[in-house]
Amino acid sequence: TQAAGISTDIVTLTRFLTEEQVKVREATGDFTLLCHALQFSFKAISHYIRRATLVNLTGLAGQSNATGDDVKKLDVIGNDLFIAAMKSSGKCALLVSEEEEEIIYFKTPQGSARYAVACDPIDGSSNLDAGVSVGTIFGIHRLAEGSQGTKEDILKPGTELVAAGFTMYGASAQLVLTMKGGGVNGFTLDNSFGEFILTHPDMRIPKSRAIYSVNEGNSLYWEEHTKEYFNSLKFPQGGSGKPYSARYIGSMVADAYRTLLYGGIFAYPADKKSPKGKLRILYECAPMAMVFENAGGQAVDSKMARMLEVVPEHIHDRAGIFLGSYDEVEKVKSFYK
Ligand code: AHM
Ligand code: MG
């Protein structure tokens, strides 16, 4: 509906979730409640990130401020906000956070919490002090039938995820959400409404695009296949081909979001320095892989196995990753054959 050029039929995240819930038979509303808690943590983290420089929240945790108080830094605040949101939802049985060595188990009445969540509350935090975009990444699993929440409920492959996504705190806060068997939807936080608004329905990643995103400072450590692949993008054979553009922010969420919108390839390959890769399977690689596959792209690890099928042994396990446009990932695979 348009009234004087203003849309009055706005799809908020709340409305979107309610409408989705109606489509699923036997939906109890628990997932919707969990998502409400999630979106609150995104709003709160976004608020503190925007206030950070003004209220002395940048820098390292544990440092004292001018008055000698210990200042909680943003990484710690983001983690605390996320944990509090999951706990208060009453629907989360256990949580894995990048910032916590061990799994956090929440006490809930028997059978009332049916989800296990993995998150990186503020990914790319080395960029925070410079005001560069960072983000929160999350993956949601359902507990096994009858389970009260155990390690096995989270040490699962990405194919089992019921939902995943991320929020990027950039010029605006952008939430990207996907659910099992569904598409990918993008929401923008409208600060005046305090609501995430559906601005990017049914996102599809372009099939190919000549943009690559990788930390080339690691190329000394790269394996031969990796070197050959990236060289092929920079020095195309046959004369006519143009070289790819390079874009690397160093914040996975921001690099992935751009790749999702524009197409191309994002990679953090395993190398001689980090033979298992750098990025974490549960709360960095798998949720992103789910988003990219559901948007028509692909994601593989450094052995060219489908990222969503990689099963972590430990909660903080890492993997090499290549994710992006369908055809660009096909090209990667052809170099590793
Ligand atoms: P973090 O979880 O400690 O912030 O590290 C993850 C980040 C990603 O956001 C980003 O893709 C990568 O590390 C950048 O690493 P590098 O600085 O080695 O290029
Ligand atoms: Mg991280």
What structural class should be given to the helix and strand makeup? alpha+beta
Q: Which percent range describes the beta-strand content?
A: 15-25%
Please give the radius of gyration in angstroms.
Answer: 20 Å
Note poorly predicted spans. none
What is the tally of helical segments?
7
Identify the overall geometry.
globular
What does this structure look like?
This protein is an alpha+beta fold and 337 residues long. The chain is built from 7 helices and 17 strands. The chain has helices at 13-23, 30-51, 74-89, 224-234, 252-262, 281-294, 326-336; strands at 2-3, 6-7, 92-97, 104-105, 115-123, 134-142, 163-169, 173-179, 184-190, 195-200, 211-213, 245-246, 265-268, 279-280, 298-300, 318-319, 321-324. Strands 4-3-5-6-7-8-9-10 form an 8-stranded mixed beta sheet, sandwiched between helices. A hairpin with a 4-residue loop joins strand 9 and strand 10. Helix 1 runs antiparallel to helix 2 (30-51) and helix 4 packs across helix 7 (326-336). The longest helix has 22 residues, at 30-51. 44% of the residues are buried. The model has no long low-confidence stretch (mean pLDDT 93). The chain binds 2,5-anhydro-1,6-di-O-phosphono-D-mannitol and magnesium ion (MG). 2,5-anhydro-1,6-di-O-phosphono-D-mannitol binds at residues 98, 120, 123-126, 215, 250-252, 268, 278.
List keywords for this structure.
single chain; 337 residues; alpha+beta; 8-stranded mixed beta sheet; 28% helix; globular; binds 2,5-anhydro-1,6-di-O-phosphono-D-mannitol; binds magnesium ion
Q: Which SSEs are present, and which pair or pack?
A:
Elements: E1 2-3, E2 6-7, H1 13-23, H2 30-51, H3 74-89, E3 92-97, E4 104-105, E5 115-123, E6 134-142, E7 163-169, E8 173-179, E9 184-190, E10 195-200, E11 211-213, H4 224-234, E12 245-246, H5 252-262, E13 265-268, E14 279-280, H6 281-294, E15 298-300, E16 318-319, E17 321-324, H7 326-336
Parallel strand pairs: 3-5, 11-12, 11-13
Antiparallel strand pairs: 1-2, 3-4, 5-6, 6-7, 7-8, 8-9, 9-10, 13-17, 14-16, 15-17
The structure holds 2,5-anhydro-1,6-di-O-phosphono-D-mannitol and magnesium ion.
